[in-house]
Write a structure and sequence with these properties.
The complex is a heterodimer.
Chain A: H1 5-38, H2 44-56, H3 59-69, H4 75-82, H5 92-118, H6 121-128, H7 133-144, H8 146-161, H9 165-170, H10 181-190, H11 194-221
Helix pairs in contact in A: 1-5, 1-8, 2-5, 5-8, 6-7, 8-11, 10-11
Chain B: H1 2-15, E1 22-28, H2 32-46, E2 49-55, H3 57-65, E3 72-74, H4 79-86, E4 96-101, E5 103-107, H5 117-121, E6 127-130, H6 136-147, H7 151-154, E7 158-161, H8 164-172, E8 178-182, H9 183-186, E9 187-188, E10 191-192, E11 196-199, E12 208-214, H10 222-231, H11 234-242
Parallel strand pairs in B: 1-2, 1-3, 6-7, 6-8
Antiparallel strand pairs in B: 3-12, 4-12, 5-8, 5-11, 9-10
Classes of the chains: A mainly alpha, B alpha/beta.
């Protein structure tokens, strides 16, 4: 037994998706987290809520709306078509866009918590040493918030690997394009091929356990708890 | 006084055979619309209550094998009810072909012709079909493409739904120009509800026979027994046919 070629393709596709999404999210999520950590604007509440929405929404809701909005008659679909990119559902890029939205809170929140934990003092000190805002950000904020970034990257990656509902709604199950591990497992189960399903499912359980155990060990050593214990 | 008590008791005795029961039934997604109409009609006639759960046959099979509390199972194929029968999960002799499904190539933004040339012209973005590994309608779609000699050329444009409902959604939302769906999904009251469709000729795929079985839990449930009898009536069969299915075997009055 073991993995079939299709299983291995699904594993590589999933790793590629999770890797791409994690990199994008660190780039997009960092300014959002920084703004949320510093602002006193009334917009903080609504923006935080939008970022956190995927935590509470069923993935099917997100997938359903993305299918419509990114479709040929949707707002985003019409923009992507006008740009000559076609429509996003059933493509790898479409999954990347969906996963970025879906995993956003898992990246933004740990970074934001770490940035809030820095406090005013180091920033004031940096300012008295005539550091500009960019300099302060890269020389003070990012090094001090590093554990938050590590947690964010690990959680963003792991959460994208575990994504299912959204992919099912907009993926179309195309080999090497949108057929990720979770969809492949679903197919095995639906086709009553339980032996094949066990291989992939078992691998997912071990992967998830190792990632989370490593994360908690890392946090424990640093005596920081950026996440509620339950996550 | 005595007379009225007697009358009341008599009424109770007479009413007894009509005691209404409840049944929970698992139904393959392609039969959703037809089953809703059948259940409503059956409830009105019999006084029984029917609770319906819709989903893919594969998932129901797994759930029933693991003790899901359904009284009966309407599959999209014959293999799964037969397998449940083999495993001793069904009431023996209850298996019945309740419908023979028809396949249609459907689009909401392209005009269909009457011999599938739209597939040969290849001017569509995506072709949606149900996953052939899981869904009988998907397997039928692949047979059609193979018989037309288009399975290899069209493969790059396939998008697969996990079941026939999702395939319908891919086409209905305009994300896929074309898709193979169950005729029952786009057909109501004997006509096409929306878009344009090519009803695929029967020679191009093996008949999609759909079987239902009474499960062990529903063995003594009068609602299930009556429902299975009702399905064989002319009245029920005309409802089933109005959704684009065919029937097998003789009907009873």
């Amino acid at each position: 037994m073991g993995f079939t070629d299709a299983d291995i393709n699904a594993i590589f596709l999933t790793l590629k998706l999770a890797g791409t999404v994690t990199c994008l999210l660190l780039v997009i999520g960092t300014p959002i987290a920084w703004w949320l950590a510093r602002t006193h604007s009334w917009l903080k509440g609504p923006i935080s809520a939008v970022v956190a929405l995927p935590l509470v929404l069923p993935p099917t809701v997100l997938g359903f709306y993305l299918l419509i909005v990114m479709g040929p008659n949707g707002v985003v679909g019409q923009i992507t078509q006008a740009m000559g990119l076609g429509t996003l559902p059933f493509t790898f890029s479409g999954l990347v866009v969906a996963s970025v939205l879906y995993s956003m809170p898992f990246v933004v929140q740990p970074i934001q918590n770490a940035m809030e934990a820095i406090g005013e003092r180091p920033l004031e000190v940096a300012a008295t040493l005539r550091a500009g805002p960019w300099d302060t950000f890269f020389s003070v904020v990012i090094p001090l918030a590093k554990p938050g970034f590590v947690t964010a990257a690990i959680l963003g990656f792991a959460h994208t690997v575990g994504e299912f509902g959204v992919v099912l709604m907009i993926g179309g199950n195309i080999p090497n394009e949108t057929r990720v591990i979770s969809v492949q497992i679903y197919d095995h189960v639906e086709a009553l091929d339980y032996a094949q399903a066990h291989w992939l499912s078992g691998a997912m359980v071990i992967f998830s356990f190792v990632v989370l155990a490593g994360l908690y060990l890392f946090q424990h050593r640093r005596r920081i708890y950026l996440l509620p214990k339950g996550v | 006084m005595k007379k009225s008590v007697f009358c009341f008791l008599l009424m109770l005795i007479l009413a007894k055979p009509c005691v209404a029961e409840e049944a929970t039934i698992a139904v393959a997604s392609n039969f959703t619309s037809a089953m809703q109409e059948l259940a409503t009609d059956f409830e009105r006639q019999s006084g029984h209550r029917i609770h319906l759960a819709f989903g893919s046959s594969g998932k129901f099979f797994a759930q029933i094998s693991n003790g899901a509390p359904f009284d009966a199972f309407f599959s999209a194929d014959q293999a799964k009810p037969a397998a449940l029968e083999q495993a001793g999960q069904t009431v023996s002799g209850s298996r019945l072909t309740y419908a023979v499904g028809a396949l249609a190539l459907w689009s909401i933004n392209q005009q269909m012709d009457q011999n599938g040339d739209v597939l040969r012209r290849n001017q569509f973005n995506k072709l949606a079909l149900a996953n052939p590994r899981l869904a009988p309608y998907g397997a039928a779609a692949v047979q059609v493409l193979t018989n037309l000699g288009l399975d290899k050329t069209s493969r790059a444009k396939w998008v697969q739904g996990e079941n026939i409902s999702q395939t319908y959604q891919f086409v209905g939302s305009g994300n896929a120009d074309l898709g193979f769906v169950a005729l029952s999904q786009i057909y109501a009251n004997g006509q096409l509800a929306q878009g344009s469709a090519w009803i695929v000729p029967k020679e191009l795929y093996a008949p999609i026979r759909q079987d239902a079985v009474v499960l062990k839990k529903g063995e003594k449930n009068q609602a299930v027994i009556d429902l299975f009898a009702y399905l064989k009536t002319k009245r029920a069969r005309s409802v089933i046919e109005s959704f684009g299915y065919q029937n097998e075997g003789p009907a009873i009055e």
